[in-house]
Amino acid sequence: VSVSEIELQNVKINCMVTSRFAHTVMTSMALNKANVSQEVFFDVELPKTAFITNFSMEINGNTYVGVVKEKEKAKKQYEAAVSSGKTAGLVKASGRKMEKFSVSVNIAANSNITFTLTFEELLQRRLGKYELMIRVKPKQLVQNFEIVADVFEPQGITFLNAHGTFITNELLPLVEKTVTDKRAHVSFSPTLDQQRKCPDCDGTLIDGDFFINYDVNREDMFGNIQIVNGYFVHFFAPADFPKLPKNVVFVIDRSGSMSGTKMHQTHEGLKTILNELHEEDHFGFVTFSGDVKAWKPSLTTATKENLKNAEAFVETITASGLTNINDAVLFAVKMLKDAMNKKTVPENSASMIILLTDGNPNEGESNIQSIQNNVKNAIGGEMTLFCLGFGYDVSYTFLDVMAKQNNGLARRIYEGSDAVVQLQGFYDEIANVLLSDVNFQYPENSVNSLTGSKFKQLFNGSEIVVAGRLNDNMMNDLPFEVTAQSVEKDLVFVGNATAQDWKTIFPDQEYIFGDFTEHLWAYLTIQNLLDKIEKGSPEEKIKATEDALELSLKYNFVTPLTSMVVTKPETEENPEDTFIADKLTEDQRRHVPQAAGVTLQRTYTSSVTNWVDSD
Amino acid sequence: PHFIIEFADQNDALCFNINDKPGTIFNLIKDPLIGIIVNGQTIGDKKIDPENTMNTYFGSFGIVHAKFGIRLVVTTQDILVSEKGKQSKLFWSDNISIKGSNMDLHVAKDRSLTVTLRNSVKFVIVLHKVWKKHPYHQDFLGFYTLDSHLFSQRVHGLLGQFFHGITFEVSDMFKGKDPDKPDATMFVKGHNLTVTRGWQKDFRKDLKKGENVPCWFVHKNGTGLIDGEIEDYIVSGLF
User: Are residues B178 and A609, on separate chains, in Cβ contact within 8 Å?
Assistant: First the structure.
């Protein structure tokens, strides 16, 4: 809220995390103390990985609720506004991890307004911890400011830390944290004076990110299975496995656009990464611009001497020329395959290619789909491809799809002083493979609608999550089998999971939000389907789109296939205003200017209420 | 509970909700000439889901056929049958068919009970089983009349009053509060009501998902569509 005559009375951020699934409700209440009507802005930043599920505005006792609709249907409905040149959307890209939801509304003199935004996300385990991130920027002092988070983890919590980028020494004692075996409660509620930057000024200290990091016990090797009301979720992150030796080929873009800071940062990043290779690892370098060159024609053992030579080689990589991704990746594949065929690398080892590029292919094969097909056919499931897209000139979707088609993942490296840290961070996540070919099996006659159940690898510090529906809602038992390959042997975990009694686990807890396992399953299924839409065959794409849309609508998730339509109250100046909130794709984020403001759409519908679907 | 009145010949349906406190017993069918009464008692959730308001469902039904001396009490636990003083108990976990001189019963394990009363009525009670450890919800029942043409002209009750049809006219469709659900004016029983196009679920074929039945939704506990008010249908006991 940027107008001084608007008093921000209440900001409450309430997070409920149950078995890694986070449900966050942000509520903000403002009072217009002026004698004239004024515009109030509600800007919230939420994680890109979250799906908005609800938004409402309450003005003078009237509630205006956002309705999730099929994107095309919503667009068609409001195409008049779109065609008049006004951009659609309440959601804007905002930095690396967040996207911004913005809405503004005119409220009458001496009236108040309450905004409520709800979103859900599955927290991912990275480098041994889950992270819940809350961005708070109230822009002015708030009468009642509160962050409350409750974490419920049936496996038990091993540690939990709460900290914020804006937490000064004075504010630190206000971060209250209670952790018991399976439950944690975090709160932060500074008074008006405690929020002040200085005793006599109105500036607020509350401006930044609030983090909650935690991890859970992992006593059972086969993981933890939770069965709730016809749905199950299997969390798998066994501890204490030795790392698999890895065979890694770094495919580095040295085209002209990489020159300068990017190439310098690449040098630094690669040198750091080389230091983390172990003697049992094998590695190689392929560099490319219009042509392709290899440091050495075959993989090299990561001895101290070889690493030292490699560091010297890295320093010599200079940028110029075009971008031939196709031939470079195929060359790397051949290097790895040769090594596997000649058995110069250990049998139980993880083979991977790490591609770093900052641009689109423009030399050799430049058709993106052909490159994806060539790479997929060449790799044939025998190794994993990770792609790093450096900066914003790269087609991230191209890299993302290509990585996913080959059991890997992509990450954008943002241009900035910390690019080296980003490179290293990504490498740390994927470099330590504990298990390969991890497959989850459940009796076919007991489960359906299973999310992805085959994984090329399990990284140290990460977690695999599989969810599904039980054929019988009443089922309280589920047999399972997990197979995987470790450095020493093939592993088979067989067991039988039993539904836990939540009343016993959390006896004092009146309310653990309703059907969280079902929502977790839906969230994960939609993510899987969205991946399939990107990388599947034309038939698979159609089916996956239909299924993802159906689930998005059923669970009220704003996904790339749906939009939330928000109708504003009528005013004399604005007979009716309607907004659309979308979920941005990575490519859309790329095209949205960072500092985009809110643009209104005007159409002729009245306010929205749901009242018939009581089922 | 949701009420759906289907008009198969017109390919249309009316629907309304009846909300009252849990434990209330409603008369659904009363035919003094044939001697049939069907009453249903509502239940609530185990605990109110903080994100929703309290919903009510039917938890038990009492069915009487006075002339045949038949009484049935159907709950989410079991089915008590009493015929001319003789009593027996059936369980939802059974898969059983019983043919009697005046009544046939068929229990489809954990799904439904079909009751056929000779020369009068056939209906199905559907069991909605909810996960036992669910924090909020519990098992509940649905009641579907399959054949109602043999009821007398004096049949009444929340469902019974519609057994011999109803004349209604829907006109002046206009944009409702939800763009997907248009409103319209319905002229029925001498009242002009604002109704909304929506849908309810028929769970007879697909117990889990149900089938959507498009219908005209009458607001405020069916006011204007049902004769009188909901208080007129509240009775003191299942029989």
Answer: yes
Q: What is the pLDDT of residues B37-63, one digit of tens each?
A: 999 999 998 877 666 677 899 999 999
Q: Could you tell me the pLDDT band of residue A615, with boundaries at 50, 70 and 90?
A: very low
- Predicted pLDDT at A77: 62
Which residues of chain B are under the pLDDT cut of 70?
49-52, 179
Q: Which of A467, A475, A465, A466 is nearest to A445 (CA)?
A: A475
List Cα–Cα distances, A188 to A28, A29, A176, A242, in angstroms.
Answer: 16, 18, 6, 40
Q: What letter represents residue A11's amino acid?
A: V
- For the residues A122-134, what does the mean pLDDT come to? 95
For residue A508, pLDDT beyond 80: no
Phi, psi of A329 (to 5 degrees): -70, -40
Could you tell me how far CA A388 lies from the centroid of its own chain? 16
- Which residues does residue A178 pair with via DSSP β-bridges, in sequence order? A185
Tokens of residue A259, six digits: 């020159």
Give how far B32 is from chain A: nearest CA, Å.
Answer: 34
pLDDT tens by residue, A14-29: 999 999 999 999 999 9
Query: Which residues contact residue A356 at a Cβ distance below 8 angstroms, ignoring those fewer than 6 apart?
Result: A250, A251, A252, A253, A266, A388, A390, A413, A423
Residue written as token pair 């789909």: A369
Q: Provide the sign of the torsion angle of the four alpha carbons A56, A59, A63, A68, taken in this order.
A: negative
Helix, strand, or coil here: B100? coil
Instruction: Confirm if A354 and A251 have CB atoms less than 8 A apart.
Output: yes
Chain centre to alpha carbon of residue A392: 18
If we measure between CA atoms, which residue out of B128, B110, B113 comes closest to residue B38? Answer: B113
Q: Which residues fall within 8 angstroms of residue A418, CB to CB, at 6 or more apart?
A: none
DSSP code at position A123: P
| Token pair for A453 | 């159940």
Distance CA A44, CA B219 (A): 36
Does residue A594 register a pLDDT over 50?
no
Q: Does B2 touch chain A (CB under 8 A)?
A: yes
Identity of the residue in B49, B181, B201 whose CB atom sits nearest the CB atom of A514 = B49
> How confident is residue A199, by pLDDT bands cut at 50, 70 and 90?
confident
- Mean pLDDT to the nearest integer, A155-164: 96
Tokens (6 digits) for A301: 């053992």
Q: Are A18 and A152 in contact (CB under 8 A)?
A: yes
More confident residue, B95 or A474: B95
Q: What's the DSSP call for residue A595?
A: T
Dist CA A65 CA A67 (whole Å): 6
Instruction: Find the mean pLDDT for residues A527-531.
Output: 93
What are the residues whose beta carbons fall under 8 Å from the beta carbon of A371, sequence distance 6 or more? A325, A326, A329, A361, A365, A398, A402
C-alpha–C-alpha distance, residues A433 and A336, integer Å: 17
- Tell me the residues of A at the B interface, defined by beta carbons under 8 Å apart: 67, 69, 77, 228-230, 473-474, 476, 499, 501-503, 510-514, 605-615
Please, what is the average pLDDT of chain A?
Answer: 86
C-alpha B188/C-alpha A252 separation (Å) is 76
Cβ-based contacts of A67 with chain B (< 8 Å): 178
Q: What distance in Å separates the CA atoms of residue A385 and residue B30, rounded to the nearest whole number?
A: 71
Closest CA to A413 of A390, A392, A386: A390
Region A160-180: mean pLDDT is 94
Q: Which of A200-204, A483-487, A605-609, B111-115 has the lowest mean pLDDT?
A: A605-609
Q: What is the pLDDT, as a whole number, of residue A94?
A: 62
Residue A614 has pLDDT above 70, yes or no: no
Which one-letter amino acid corresponds to residue B139?
D
Tell me the β-bridge partners of A215.
A159
